Amino acid sequence: MKGPTYSLPVIPKDVDQQQGFAVTKWFFDQMITNNVPWLNVSFRSVNPPDYVPIGQYFMGRVEMDKMKAQGKKELFLYHTNSFRPIAKDIPVTYDWLKNCVPCETFGFAKYLWIAPGEEVGPTQDHNFQGDTVFDLIEDDLPMHTAMKMPGRDCRLIMEDGSEIGYVEGMTLLLNPKQKYTIKNTGNTDACLIIKTARLGIQFQRFCDMVARSYWVQANQDKKEGDGQSR
Hints:
With 230 residues, this protein is of the alpha+beta class. It has one domain: Jelly Rolls (Sandwich), CATH 2.60.120. It is 27% helix and 27% strand. It is built from 5 helices and 11 strands. The strands form 2 sheets. It has a 7-stranded antiparallel sheet with strand order 1-9-6-11-4-2-3. Strand 2 and strand 3 (82-83) form a beta hairpin.
């Protein structure tokens, strides 16, 4: 799995790909054993047909620019078990976090801006200390949503050496056992919404998303041969 890219491991025949929990349990086991660095997840697969990724929706971008005007490198929208008051000033993004992300609540959620030439990390969004799939299910799961990108010149580099260029609108579910580095080699700022998800009563919806996202990414890997985008 070393190198600049990776392709998803083949799901065993004894795992029913129609069962969200079965696929998620298998995929989480791959995370715990460090066989996968991330999954490019599809929120669209568990939202209404008219869903538009927040990083591609003009009002999401307008609200991002509004928050950037405060001049901070990072800005928390959710922290210490509640939404920050500032989140109410960006209603579209607030609604997206509450209703479109398949989790009950968050450990945190924040904007992060990365300037041209800047490098962030190595770091982790949450230090996972568990040993089993069920430990992972009950813990905080890190996700990165790309809001604004300088093409593919802002890259995520995982501890195992795997890399992917962020694409506006994509959300990556990261392996919480690995540290990561973000490098912006482009000429403009990049912006992410980074969050750690707590599944709770949204567990089944999350599992359905993982199963559907695995199928989409695995087929994209076969089509493009590099596992980099969808």
